[in-house]
Amino acid sequence: MAPTANTGKSRKLALADSDSESEAYQKKLEEAGAARSRLRKAQEDRDKRREALALAYQRSLSGIYSRVEKSIAKYRDLHSAMHIRRLKRLKKAVDTRDQKLEAISEKLVDLQQLMTNHGSHLHALYGDRCAKIAKLAEDGSKERGGGGGGTEQAAGVV
């Protein structure tokens, strides 16, 4: 194909087309760069928010852990206090029982001593009469064997 007679006009159009294409291309490059910078900024903001959320989550989690630990410590303290109170009550009951048992044992010792004293007094009073009573008992049984009313006769009530 041969060039047309008006080649200058077509060159101007071609240059104008290439200028508009290059301007459009430059605009697209600028828009793409702006989009990349917006995307980068959005990613940075997202990362900052994620870090802030992670930090807040860790803080709340540590707060929850500390409250749970405090609650467990309070429960253990309360349980220990209740156990100590029960042990003190049992110790008091055992001490009271021991005091009562000591009082009873002291009374028994006193009564045994009193009975021993009474026994020795009775033995002193009736020691020589014991043989006489044994002899009277033998005589009474011999008399009872014969008549059946030996006790009344021995008493003198015939």
UniProtKB/TrEMBL annotation:
Residues 1-48 are annotated as: Disordered. It comes from the Eukaryota. Residues 24-33 have a biased composition (Basic and acidic residues). This is Uncharacterized protein.
